[in-house]
Amino acid sequence: xxxxxxxxxxxxxxxxxxxxLCALIFLFLVGPLLIIIPLSFNAQPYFTFSxxxxxxxxxxxxxxxxxxxxxxxxxxxxxxxxxxxxxxxTFLATILGTVAALGLSSRHMPARSAIMALLISPMIVPLxxxxxxxxxxxxxxNLAQTYLGVVLAHTVLGxxxxxxxxxxxxxxxxxTLIRAAHSLGANPTRTFFKVVLPLVTPGVVSGALFAFIxxxxxxxxxxxxxxxxxxxMPIQMWSGIREQISPTILAVATLLVLLSMxxxxxxxxxxxxxxxxxxxxxx
Amino acid sequence: MNESLQREKQDDAGEATAVADACFARxxxxxKSYDGVELVVKGFNLDVRRGEFVTLLGxxxxxKTTCLMMMAGFETPTHGQILLQGEPINDLPPHKRGIGxxxxxxxxxxxxxxxxxxxxxxxxxxxxxxxIKRKVAKALAMVRLEDFGDxxxxxxxxxxxxxxxxxRALVFEPKLVLMDEPLGALDKNLREEMQYEIKRIHxxxxxxxxxxxxxxxxxxxxxxxxxxxxxxxxxxxxxxETLYEAPENAFVANFIGENNRLHGExxxxxxxxxxxxxxxxxxxxxxxxxxxxxxxxxTLSLRPERVGIVGEGDEASFDNHFQAExxxxxxxxxxxxTRLEVCGNDEFIIKTPxxxxxxxxxxxxxxxxxxxxxxxxxxxx
Lengths: 283, 381
What we know:
The complex is a heterodimer.
Chain A: H1 9-39, H2 51-54, H3 64-71, H4 73-105, H5 112-124, H6 127-140, H7 147-171, H8 176-183, H9 188-216, H10 220-225, H11 233-243, H12 248-278
Helix pairs in contact in A: 1-12, 3-12, 4-7, 4-9, 4-11, 5-7, 7-9, 8-9, 9-12
Chain B: H1 3-22, E1 25-33, E2 39-48, E3 53-57, H2 64-72, E4 79-84, E5 87-88, E6 99-102, H3 114-124, H4 129-142, H5 158-170, E7 176-180, H6 188-205, E8 208-213, H7 216-222, E9 225-230, E10 233-238, H8 240-245, H9 250-255, E11 260-270, E12 273-278, E13 283-288, E14 297-302, E15 308-309, E16 320-331, E17 335-342, E18 345-353, E19 366-371, E20 377-379
Parallel strand pairs in B: 3-8, 3-9, 6-7, 7-8, 13-20
Antiparallel strand pairs in B: 1-2, 1-4, 4-5, 9-10, 11-12, 11-14, 12-13, 14-20, 15-19, 16-17, 16-19, 17-18
Helix pairs in contact in B: 3-4, 3-5
């Protein structure tokens, strides 16, 4: 951001103050996350920087908390559970959410906004209420403390993200493409898989990513529904903090930050790809 | 079998195909209403001959696109029947009709290359890989885009995209091709170029085409026959020449080409000649076309190029003579467009060629203009 040549002294000063403010806000947002990364390599079982770490002495750093994580059956079980629940619920939420969004985008759909509101409601209703409700209901039908129960609950939480992203993609979807495909002899099934799906894929994928992240760091519902067998990562972290203060949690947090960055990068790449595809496409 | 008998048999067969050819695509008393109250299309009838280029022309909202969409199968008629090669197709879904369609916004698949777009209808029909390749190459050559097969639609200009859309609608050799204002998004030069391109392809392939446009020049240039739509009804269905020279009602006269209008009342009508008293008091001799009997209101329609200035030598055929005041002269290169006040109408236009021997007119000047009653058509009010 260059300063124009006609800027007054006041404007110049403001320009640098503004940049400083931006940096501070950025630090406020990212600082707590960044501090975790060096701390996770701490050789001491503390949550503070030791003297050796501050003088950059190699002795102050170690991978012991990572080792601890990868050798602890409790943590490994938790991460396994998180992936099982996350992937299964993402799979279900993506299919159901995409189909719902397609149905809702049809101009023949009655009560469209009411159904939309109902589908989005898990995102709006306080989580503790959904969780309590699901707990009582799932207990009645013997789904509490089962994998299926947790997966279904997370599916419900993930669907709104898929519905919203796919609906957004569909709103810019040119419906004459469907007519064109029909006029060229493609039946509705072929039209869906060859024309509609490839073009809404970016929306489907970003919805799926959001659904996965939602399931991956969800605590409240799991707390209500999961038995000891279904302990997921966030629950393990939560009890880890409460029961034994071990920096292993920092190693886990660093790994999770890396995972999130990976997912966000995927998202951005997909967005660029779809932008390129849509390029000058008729709107 | 003797020769004459054989010939007779051939003639019979010829007659049967002639009937099928004359009614290649038919609309029979088709009506369409979207809301169940108002009819967008009211009793549409049309027989399209095999190999014909028929245009549905009309202002927006006149029902022409709805008719096209019903033929394509994207809308269902509320009433009436649509036939293709003698078979009713009302209950046939669009993908089973085998009708090619070109859309106004091209509707190319943005995630496929040009060649993949063209291959799409062929893959749907399970053609062999080699055959697909051959047909795609042929179609690209037809629209002169041989080197563009690997490009994405977004990398092409509007005109090129429209060519691809055209090639895609033709590549699977459909019986009928529909076009919905295909040149609407192009600039003027490109539009004219594409008109000739489409005309050439039509002549080359002999495919039947139904074309929708609101652009009268486009319709006049390209069509064998034009159906002029207004208000959900076909106002006139005829060749471009007939539409221009012999419009049957005031809407058609006004919509096709330029047209001077004079309003009045029929005071006498004998055979193919009538006398009309204008609202401004003058009496004009005209040819009754769609005017009522004596006392009926009528609109006189007169083409600007059929009005002459008295003193130019062709006034012998003029049986109408009036004083006119020149209001405005617009120089258009090959001709001059002059606005006059005639019989109280100050929007009266005449066209005079920019050639030697024609007097130059100046605003404020008074001249005598005249026209033949044969060129002055008395139409509905």
